[in-house]
Every structure is written in C-alpha cells, then in structure tokens.
Design goal:
This protein is mainly alpha-helical and 171 residues long. It is 89% helix and 0% strand.
Length: 171
C-alpha cells in the first residue's frame, strides 16, 4: 500500500508530536545526560590536545581536575563578593534616592518645566525592606520545599553526581 504525500506528511507530523511530548515528559530524566553531552562537547578539544602527550583516560582526569579546581575557586571567590555587594547595594539605596531628589529632580524641573513631587524616601525604604523580607521568605520556603522531600533531595544529589560521570564517559 503506497501512501500519498499528504498521508506521509501527516504521519511524520504525528511522529514529531509524539517525540516532542515524549521529550517534554522525560525532561527531568534526560537533563543530566544533555548537560553531560554539552560539557563533553566543550571539553573534548582540550582533552584531544592533552591526549597527544598522555593516554585518553589520564587526559580526561587532568581536565576534570582543573575544571573542579576552577569551579571551586570561582565559588569560593564569588559567593562572598556577591554577599558583600548585595549588602552594599541595600545600604546605598537611601543615599541614591537622596541624590536623585537633590540633583536630578531640580535638573528635570529646570529643563522640562514640569513640577515633580519629591521622592518619598521613607515609603520607598519601607517598601524595599518589606519586599526584601518577602523575597527572602519566598526563597526560604522554596528551598525548604525543595529539600524537605527526601526523594527530591536524593534526586538532586544523584543528578549532580550523574553529570560528571556521564561527561567522563562521553569524553
């Protein structure tokens, strides 16, 4: 039985829909493998260069050692810096608002001829602190929900362990 072109296209479209739905359904399972394939693709040229001087397994081990070292150093340096920057940003908000009210608003009044009301600093400070507390509360509840389930915590750990193992295998 010969299928017409429109029937073939219909079957191909149906197969594509099934494949897309299958990939979307399996996304939590496939994600570590996709990440591992991406890392293997990115690290393969470095491994190939090192392979000229040593065997493939040793080259992959050297690449993983340096990748782990770089990742650890970046985390150790960035996390304290980010915390300091965030604290500094929050402390500087009132000074920036005062500068806007003192410098920018008079300039805008002079250039546009429009009358601007002053910036209600107390209201803004109150809103920022209120929403900051809400944001930290939401982040805490999300973290609590994500880690409260033993199954989800085990899956996160397994996925974190699976990505380097599959990357090592693919390299």
């Amino acid at each position: 039985m010969e299928l017409s072109i429109s029937q073939r296209l219909l079957w191909i479209a149906a197969a594509l829909v099934v494949v897309v739905v299958l990939f979307i359904s399996l996304k939590p399972i496939l994600m570590p493998f996709v990440l591992a394939a991406m890392f293997a693709y990115l690290l393969d040229p470095i491994t190939d260069i090192l392979e000229r001087k040593m065997n493939r397994t040793a080259a992959v081990c050297v690449v993983f050692f340096f990748l782990t070292l770089i990742f650890s150093l970046v985390l150790l340096l960035l996390i304290p810096m980010l915390i300091d920057q965030l604290g500094s940003f929050i402390q500087r908000i009132p000074a920036v608002l005062e500068w806007l009210q003192r410098s920018i608003l008079p300039y805008l009044r002079e250039k546009t001829g429009l009358e601007f009301e002053g910036i209600p600093l107390n209201d803004i400070q109150h809103l920022v602190s209120q929403y900051w507390q809400q944001a930290s509360g939401v982040a805490g509840s999300v973290l609590k929900t994500a880690t409260s389930s033993t199954v989800s915590a085990v899956l996160v750990v397994v996925n974190l362990m699976l990505v380097p193992v599959v990357t090592f295998y693919l390299l």
